């Protein structure tokens, strides 16, 4: 189910050609707060939470079906906090924020490493060894934003540009260890769009506010296993979206070409 639910957002963004100009999307979950701040000229479509969804911003997309399938991909104690689509004239990006409510401690080195390696394995299962041949042993980065521990890493798979999975084969993932759970933010785009994606991540992380999590215990095996499982679920979720999106288009909204990614704009009409 998860593998089928995932893989690519190009066709979905093709349906968003009429989205309104974007402003920052403010995501609040308890005392967790983060802003998804698109660059000038970029547009957003919020599919979740439903309270932030505006139909005119996602014209041509069956949001109800999209969200239903998204929810089915996430099981257990992991909840979906937000799902946001960001696009500009020459790029698009998918942002998903999940919360693991039952883990309210900070990472130690072992759980941080397990989290990153779980993500790599999830991506390898989805794309295969060939696409992951350039991805080696990943050491996650640790930092603090406004007192909250953050653990993150990047993965760039080798996927041919003509493959639909190419558009979400570059991922940046950061997890905030808070007193109310671990919030994981995943940003998926194409390898060519990593610079603007990193800028989007930086703007978002700069806005993060939350109550810091407790200090980690000395060593808990089940936390290491859980970190690896969560990392794998998240990356599998992102990378598979393309194939799903084909089924989400309204019958009255045939797929359109997303200019700036699939093809140049059409010529102007003859005088």
TrEMBL record:
UniProt keyword terms in alphabetical order? Membrane, Signal, Transmembrane, Transmembrane helix
Report the transmembrane regions from the record.
Answer: 219-245
Query: What span is annotated as the signal peptide, if there is one?
Result: 1-24
Supply the name of the protein.
Uncharacterized protein
Q: Which organism is it from?
A: Pendulispora rubella
